[in-house]
Specification:
Layout (H helix, E strand, L loop, with lengths): L2 E3 L1 H12 L4 E5 L12 E2 L9 E2 L3 E4 L12 E9 L14 E4 L11 E4 L9 E4 L9 E2 L10 E3 L7 H9 L4 E5 L3 E7 L3 E2 L10 E2 L2 H11 L3 E8 L3 H8 L8 E5 L9 H6 L4 E6 L1 E2 L3 E7 L2 E6 L3 H19 L9 E6 L3 E2 L5 E9 L7 E5 L8 H4 L4 E5 L5 E2 L4 E6 L1
Helix pairs in contact: 1-6, 3-6
This protein binds adenosine monophosphate (AMP) and magnesium ion (MG).
Magnesium ion binds next to loops.
Length: 403
């Protein structure tokens, strides 16, 4: 007898199987979307020195205090473009022309923006007064050297990577993207653009899985179309295990004959079970030669729903993400639906929420059939009908997972 287990129990098993990815340092350019594994400290303050926030003139505020009543003319004693590193003192009664981001000369306590001057290069007419501190960006105003710039668990998006670069990091400690081997099984599968013969279909699971895996920040290698032959499956896949962190298969795990994955991996450390869900009931997981294995059924919709239910949360957790769940909302159904008793049903749906409404509305896209991939492309959510529900009416509130 095949064991029947709950969706939650299988999800927990798969998450435990994957565990935490090891920590490595990656160059910033390779770390986008990954999760910081340790706090990183600022090697420098930001800004690293007092500098000008404007193109203009560095002055002593006292020297231009009367400029609102009558323009003040000062000799321009120096010119400071951004990047100058040999900065001299600003003598009283003089101005230094200064550009945005250039270091403020010692002695200056304000910047007059160029728009409030005549823009002169030997002498400058200052037309407005400036309060002390005007248009100066202070050392350490943004980040103080030695403090935590980014804390462990931070997802490295553009702003976070920018800050890491700004405080002087070339690489960051992250959880390493897992390398996943994606294998489609089925003698009927053909790779486009080869022509189909009657009885054959184009292989579509591997691109779905690989793209879904890559979208999380992991790496995916693909073996398309292994035929339903145990010896062949072992011969093709076993040698490739050494290079990967996870094997994900599709097809060949149900109750029929010619179930190549089940036949090849039963007794090898992989357990096959029935999960109380629709679609996606037949599932398996375990280790083969020590490498984690997750085996999915073959129907394309089952593959994507299984990815959502098990692999997505497990991979996100392995990468160190704190939030691994899709956002869940309640919505009113636009039509009645039935669901098999004792199984959690995931239906593809389209959710909308108009402004001012308390709950949104959701309608199914396609029927429950796990081969209806076209309907999935019209969906933006999964409607979840719990195990203890066998029918829901139009207008009922249901749980919706937003994709
Ligand atoms: P299986 O789980 O191997 O019995 O496959 C279930 C259904 O999914 C069958 O109709 C298969 O032809 C189909 N199927 C399995 N693998 C793929 C694949 N990689 N691409 C498209 N359809 C598939
Ligand atoms: Mg098959």
């Amino acid at each position: 007898m095949v064991r029947v287990i709950s969706v939650d129990a299988h999800r927990e098993t798969v998450t435990g199987l994957l565990g935490n990815a090891p920590v490595i340092r990656l160059p910033l350019a390779s770390a986008a979307g990954l999760v910081l594994a340790e706090d990183v400290l600022a090697g420098v303050s930001l800004p690293p020195f007092d500098n000008s926030a404007m193109d203009g003139y560095a002055v002593r505020a006292a020297d231009v205090a009367s400029a609102d009543e009558a323009p003040v003319t000062l000799p321009v004693a120096d010119d400071i473009p951004a990047g100058r590193v040999d900065i001299g003192e600003l003598e009283p009664g003089t101005a230094h022309r200064i550009m945005t981001g250039a270091p403020l000369p010692p002695g200056a306590d304000a910047v007059v923006m160029v728009e409030h001057t005549d823009g002169g290069v030997t002498d400058v007419r200052i037309l407005r007064t400036a309060v002390p501190g005007a248009h100066i960006r202070r050392l350490g105003e943004d980040v103080v050297e030695g403090t935590v710039a980014l804390s462990a668990g931070t997802v490295l998006g553009p702003a976070q990577l920018g800050l890491a670069a700004a405080v002087g990091l070339a690489d960051v400690p992250v959880r390493r993207p897992l390398k996943v081997l994606v294998v489609s099984t089925g003698t009927e599968l053909v790779d486009a653009p080869n022509p189909l013969r009657h009885g054959q279909i184009y292989e579509s699971n591997s691109i779905m899985l690989a793209s879904a895996i890559r979208a999380l920040g992991c790496e995916a290698e693909v073996v398309r179309s292994v035929v339903d032959d145990v010896a062949e499956f072992r011969a093709v896949i076993e040698p490739r295990l050494a290079d990967v962190d996870l094997l994900v298969t599709s097809g060949g795990v149900s109750a029929g004959a010619y179930e190549v994955v089940k036949d090849a991996l039963t007794g090898q450390g992989v357990e096959f079970r029935k999960v109380a869900m629709q679609p996606g009931g037949p599932q398996g997981c375990g280790r083969w030669n020590g490498v984690p294995v997750v085996t999915l059924p073959g129907n394309p919709v089952s593959v994507l729903v299984s990815f959502e239910a098990f692999l997505r949360p497990a991979l996100l957790a392995a990468l160190g993400h704190a939030g691994v769940d899709r956002r869940q909302v309640r919505a009113r159904l636009t039509e009645s639906m039935t669901s098999p008793a004792g199984r959690r049903q995931f239906r593809r749906g389209f959710y909308t929420h108009s402004e001012g409404e308390v709950t949104g509305i959701v309608g199914p896209r396609g029927g429950p059939g796990s081969h209806l991939l076209a309907a999935f492309t019209q969906a933006n959510c999964l409607i979840v009908l719990p195990e203890d529900v066998d029918s829901v009416d139009q207008g009922d509130e249901v749980d919706v997972l937003l994709l």
